[in-house]
């Protein structure tokens, strides 16, 4: 079995290129420090729901798009080791400063998940 971190966030369409650049850099660093996979996806078919949905979950505003991302690790312990290395990596510098991110970090959510089925 593995372990997965999942992220959902709103990105202004005008900042999508800047986000892509940051995500590409971050993904390389995650992989270098041991993540087995790193994937960034932009919403393609995520209509607002009646009760809940991806757009509602991040309080999507006009001109924004939902991004769904995940990283895969060997285990929770491995994830914790990778994250510790990633957060200490000087190449990220101040690019993780919430004031300098190309999206509203206050509307981002994430969490760690233990798969219970892997096919």
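^ Assign residues to that structure.
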């Amino acid at each position: 079995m593995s372990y997965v971190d999942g992220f959902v966030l709103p990105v202004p369409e005008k900042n999508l290129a800047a986000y892509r650049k940051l995500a590409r850099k971050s993904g390389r660093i995650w992989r270098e420090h041991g993540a087995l996979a790193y994937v960034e996806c932009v919403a393609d078919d995520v209509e607002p729901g009646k009760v809940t949905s991806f757009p509602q979950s991040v309080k999507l505003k006009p001109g924004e798009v939902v991004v769904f991302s995940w990283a895969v690790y060997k285990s929770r312990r491995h994830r914790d080791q990778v994250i510790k290395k990633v957060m200490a990596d000087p190449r990220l510098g101040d690019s993780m400063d919430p004031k300098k991110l190309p999206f509203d970090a206050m509307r981002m959510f994430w969490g760690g998940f233990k798969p219970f089925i892997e096919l």
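The first strand starts at residue 3 and ends at 12.
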